[in-house]
Amino acid sequence: MLRTKTILNIGFDDTDSPKGMCTTYLAYKIVNYLIKENVEFLDYPTLVRFNPNIPWKTRGNGAVGLKIKTRYPTKIKKKITDLVFKYSDIKNGANPALVFYENETIPDQFKKFSELALSQLVKRAYAKKFATNKNLESFYVGNGQGLVGAIGVIGYQFDDQTVELLSYRKKSHFGKERIISKKSVKQMQEKTQPYTFNNYDETKNKVLITPHGPDPVFYGIRGENTKSLLQASKLIKIKEQLDGYLIFKSNQGTSAHLKNEINVNEMKPYSSGTVTGFVSKEPVMKKGGHVFFSIISKSRVVRCALYEPSGITTEMMDLKKGDKLTIGGAVRKASKKHPRIINVEFIQLLHLEKNFQLSNPLCLKCNKKMKSKGKNQLFQCIKCGKKSNKKIIEHIPRKIKKQMYLPVISAQRHLTRPLQRLGVSNKHIIFDNSFPWFHIFKN
Predict the structure, then answer these.
(1) How many helices (H) and strands (E) does the chain have?
(2) Domain containing 275: what range?
(3) Do residues 381 and 351 make contact, with C-beta atoms less than 8 angstroms apart?
(4) 205 and 278 share a domain?
(5) Which helix (H) or strand (E) holds 334?
(6) Cβ(203)–Cβ(259) below 8 Å
(7) Do residues 257 and 415 make contact, with C-beta atoms less than 8 angstroms apart?
(8) Is residue 222 part of a domain?
(9) Measuring CA to CA, which residue among 131, 126, 176, 171 is closest to residue 11?
(10) What residues form DSSP beta bridges with 46?
């Protein structure tokens, strides 16, 4: 008798450490196994970036999810569990977690958990309690922190999505320098925009697709659709034979963590979101080129910090008291010396106050500014001699404009919505199993 197929949702997280491995590489190994087992994939693997401000995260705080249909769920679960143990960097501090959920429909409680993990600090005790109450098949190693992402990725609901092609190195090259043609990456971006994004920073002449650590990833190309990713990958020139690649559906480039408002009455540490208000204390640039200012929002004073690597600190020094703006960012925990402050990720200027200043009067005949004859003296035109006894109020145009200001590309986070994606929303990227979304290169 033929067994009935079961829909199996799989989530895993926190399998890497600063010294090696990568959760997406584990996904690459798991997908390779599942394809050999002839399971039915119901969607692309999902790479979901959660709150990027969690202090103990590794790199991009990304969890991976898979949705498959199989007649042998018990066998699949055992093998995946073995692979998680094999490809997690536990000896260097990874706290891997794995969750299985057999159901086609994902309950609303999972979705709410996911939304919380996107913009707040979710404690591992809460995640453990959630797994117990929902009778989830789960396991973790270490402190259980990985459960937050593993549960969250199963419940994540995409209202905007992008894709990323991640290529992986052969094991013999792990930890070695990545050699890539900067020119080819620049040309790739020029040829594939707007269907790819944030792959090269022209302002700093910097390649953004290669990580710098010892993990198995060689490069990752971010884009709007899978075909553009494959086209882009063929334009990149490297001096290394790769092992293969895997395409993920992701929330990168969507600013999903900034959808909600920060509660200015609570200012919970590590919470992400937006605040709208009026500049109450004009910017001050401190040592290192970092800029600090304050805004009033809902009768509360909110301190804001914009850091020098953003590349927009000089422009933001032009902010004036009364300017209306929306900022996106995260609440930095208070220290002994400093209260809670919002680390700014973007600034949307909504209203600019007029910039007036007293100026020497203008000679209407000669159309030139008059000169002062001294303290408490008249003003006089040096050309025709005409005099005036008072200064005029002059409107000085502002340097900044009513628009969105983002850090330079190389200073943006994985989740940051780049300028080219403003107003863009991919609500549905249809899974195309005929497309080569997974590939292992022949030796």
Answers:
(1) 8, 25
(2) 256-354+397-416
(3) no
(4) no
(5) none
(6) no
(7) yes
(8) yes
(9) 131
(10) 65, 249
Asked if 35 and 150 sit in the same domain, the reply is: yes
Residue 434: how many other CB atoms lie within 10 Å: 5
Q: Length of the chain, please? A: 443
For the segment 171-227, what is each residue's pLDDT rounded down to a tens digit? 999 999 999 999 999 999 999 999 999 999 998 999 999 998 888 999 999 999 999
Task: Please indicate, yes or no, if residue 427 is contained in any of the structural domains.
Answer: no
Is residue 426 in a domain?
no
- C-alpha dist (Å) from residue 133 to 74, 95, 121: 22, 21, 20
Residue position matching structure tokens 């190693």: 141
Alpha-carbon distance 425 to 414, whole Å?
A: 17
Gap between the Cα atoms of 298 and 281, Å rounded: 16
Determine, yes or no, domain membership for 432. no
Does 309 share its domain with 190?
no
Give Cβ neighbours of residue 187 (< 8 Å, ≥ 6 apart).
Answer: 235
pLDDT digits (tens, 9 = 90+) for 332-388: 999 888 889 999 999 999 999 998 888 888 888 888 888 887 777 788 888 887 888
Q: Is 311 found in the same domain as 211?
A: no
Nearest to 15 by CA among 86, 73, 67, 77: 86
Tokens representing 433 are 């199993």
> Do residue 178 and residue 151 come from a single domain?
no
Is the omega angle on the peptide bond into residue 194 within 30 degrees of 0, that is, cis? Answer: yes
Q: Radius of gyration over alpha carbons of the chain, in Å? A: 27
Average pLDDT, the chain: 92
> Of 232, 250, 268, which residue is a domain's last?
250
Whether the pTM exceeds 0.70: the reply is: yes
* Number of other CB atoms surrounding residue 371 within 10 Å: 12
**Pairing label, strands 6-13, 62-70:** antiparallel
How many Å apart are CA 405 and CA 386, to the nearest integer? 46
